[in-house]
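Exam prep: given the inputs below (a chain plus heme C), describe the expected output before reading on.
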Amino acid sequence: MNTLIKSLTGLGLGAALTLFAGNAMAAGGGCGTFTNAEGVEEHLLCSEAPIDFTNKGSLQNGAKIFMNYCAGCHSAQYVRHSRIAKDLEIPPELVEKYLMVTTDQIGDHITAEIDPEIQASWFGAAPPDLSLETRLRGDDWVYTYLLSFYEDPSRPWGANNLVLANAAMPHVLHNMQETLSQEEFESEVGDLVNFMAWMGEPARHDRQVIGFFVIIFLLVLLIPVYLLNKEFWKDVK
Ligand code: HEC
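Solution:
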């Protein structure tokens, strides 16, 4: 029985630690280092991406921005348009009309409009598939990256990035940034990254909610298990 208690406590603690470690990993760390105008190396902290899968409006707006500004070059090969319609609660007709820029079958995955190999010859690097990008780099990294483009006439596309020095990607949100206030721009990019995080793990919100209740359940279970243990051993001394 003691062993059972130990393993149960171990399990609960282990699960709790994993949860915290996961959060710490996602939150911690800088986004990159860059040399400022004075030639001094500066550390760039990540801004926190506003991730909220319960905010369907934000996810829908993010999907719209992704399909219109990113899917020309980047694929998201693990995501089907039909899943976007279902999970983001967008009527399939609207997905077909406004979000399917690279295919005409709603069951298809998101493919890039322009062949990645041709792009590699244009940009010097092929744009990576973005389905799992937030899992690879972290939500905050992607968010900060998209907010960190700056003008740099020495680069082929006139723009550079603080997070990814000499990035091959042009500043595709330039016009959006020009026409919006900083706050509005950050909110649009926040929606985009929220959508990208959803693409990376559509079940993330459910997993976190279920994980929370599993830990509560284990903690509550500990009480009868502890009492049972006392009961079983009380005569064996
Ligand atoms: C004109 C083509 C083009 C468009 C449009 C474009 N990208 Fe890119 N993107 C690239 C290229 C090329 C790279 C490779 C950059 C490099 O390795 O330096 C890249 C790299 C990236 C990376 C970094 C990948 C990594 O981990 O190193 C992210 C994140 C990204 N793009 C997100 C986006 C998002 C979000 C959009 C839409 C707002 C977008 N891109 C639109 C061409 C494009």
